[in-house]
Write a structure and sequence with these properties.
Strand order of the largest sheet: 3-2-1-4-5-10-9-6-7-8
Radius of gyration: 22 Å
CATH topology of the largest domain: Rossmann fold
CATH architecture of the largest domain: 3-Layer(aba) Sandwich
Order of helices and strands: EHEHEHEHEEHEHEHEHE
Shape: elongated
Largest sheet: 10 strands, mixed
Distance between the termini: 20 Å
CATH class of the largest domain: Alpha Beta
């Protein structure tokens, strides 16, 4: 049975992740697995001071630091268990019954990848623990590295959630007319998560031929499957055009594909996807 894997870290976005997980679980009829990873923080050890202190003092300092690390580890473990229990309680109050909790030590990307075979959808927060919303440039740099690494590691659809979440009534699909974008439409049609939501199918004009025809064909496919579709061919910069359309049409959820046939194409798509995640205040689903 595939699961909704919801990754939590105790940051301000945790509540939104719980609500997005509950919404997804109800629509897909899948259980939720909450994952918390305890990552070892970078330490400045006593070796940094080896040239400034004597051997005896250094040995004592190492012992004290080891004891401190052990205490920190116990606190992190306890805190993580409380966090997982709170998340499970949150979604149970939203009507979810089938809930699991899992705690891992190590790198969060590795922990998520280990669970991919049992995942139907993965949910992560756009802003992690320790990210200051006032420091946008620094936050986006950290965010881009983390999300892009995850996109390159897993192939399960990724649901990126900002600090607040409301049940979406519509979604915007950024479509470029390529065969890989048609795979995203296949996943939307077959997936079930977005059934019943109004679809805004949006393409930004470029130098490729027959864009209007490809947009019309994609619109027809979605309508044939029962989606209410508004199709639009936009002008201008891809980020500005999509963001303006999102704001003007009160879009609740963004959907993008991140498929690639080559390393160069993968880098290009990664850049566009990360750019949209950084700029959007709405939840975003990345289809692989």
């Amino acid at each position: 049975m595939n699961k909704i894997i919801a990754c939590i870290d105790g940051s301000v976005v945790t509540s939104a992740i719980c609500e997005a997980a509950a919404w997804s679980a109800k629509r897909l009829n899948k259980p939720i697995l909450f994952l918390h990873t305890i990552e070892r923080p970078q330490q400045h050890g006593a070796d940094d001071l080896s040239g400034a202190i004597g051997l005896g003092a250094r040995s004592k300092l190492l012992a004290e630091m080891a004891a401190l690390d052990e205490q920190r580890g116990k606190l992190a473990l306890s805190h993580g268990k409380e966090m997982l229990a709170a998340a499970a309680d949150h979604v149970s109050r939203l009507g979810i019954v089938d809930i699991e909790q899992k705690q891992r030590h190590g790198d969060v990307i590795d922990a998520i990848a280990e669970l991919e075979d049992d995942a139907r959808l993965m949910i992560v927060g756009r802003d992690g623990e320790g990210h200051d919303a006032k420091q946008n440039k620094a936050k986006f740099k950290i965010l881009g590295s983390h999300i892009e690494s995850l996109l390159r590691t897993v192939h399960t659809p990724l649901f990126v959630v900002p600090s607040t979440f409301k049940q979406p009534q519509n979604f915007m699909l950024a479509y470029d007319g390529r065969a890989t974008a048609d795979k995203a439409i296949d996943k939307i049609i077959c997936g079930g998560l977005l059934n019943g939501l109004e679809c805004h199918l949006v393409m930004v004009r470029n130098n490729e031929s027959a864009q209007a025809e490809k947009l019309a064909a994609a619109e027809s496919r979605l309508k044939e499957q029962g989606f209410k579709v508004t199709a639009s061919l936009l002008e201008g910069n891809i980020f500005d055009s999509l963001q303006n359309y999102q704001q003007q049409n009160a879009i609740d959820l963004l959907v993008m594909g991140a498929f690639a046939h080559s390393k160069i194409r993968q880098l290009f798509l990664g850049s566009n996807t990360i750019g949209m995640i950084e700029r959007s205040v709405s939840p975003l689903i990345v289809l692989r």
